[in-house]
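Please, structure for the following, as tokens.
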Amino acid sequence: MGEWSFAFGAFIGSIAWLYQKAWERRGQRSAIYEKIVRLLPSITLAGLDVEKLDQMLEEGRVLWLHAPDDVVLAFQSWMATIQNGDAFNEPRLKDEFLAKMRHDLTFRAAVIPRFWTTRMGAGDFPVLHARK
């Protein structure tokens, strides 16, 4: 009986550790998302601040390390519309990006973390710059 209780305790401890790490990563993502949201008012095609856009792109590169694929891809799509001057799709893609960030910070996403899942690979990380 002692062996099973030890194994069960180790299993529960492992699960708790994994969730603690997932919660810490959620906190990291939350801090990055807050920085991005603070920069949003200056990142529109109508009134583009190049310095703020550079800051936004820098935060977006940090997303590559911490955010799930859907958030990274939504960010890249939104930035592509800004780079291409696509005023028609820019507001919709910005809203989709914000929705993906909000979904990633939900309680459900924290309780059911996405461990070890990524579909992005080489060539999926374009480095954009506001200044030439």
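The two ends are 69 Å apart (CA to CA). The helical segments are 2-39, 50-66, 69-84, 90-104, 107-111.
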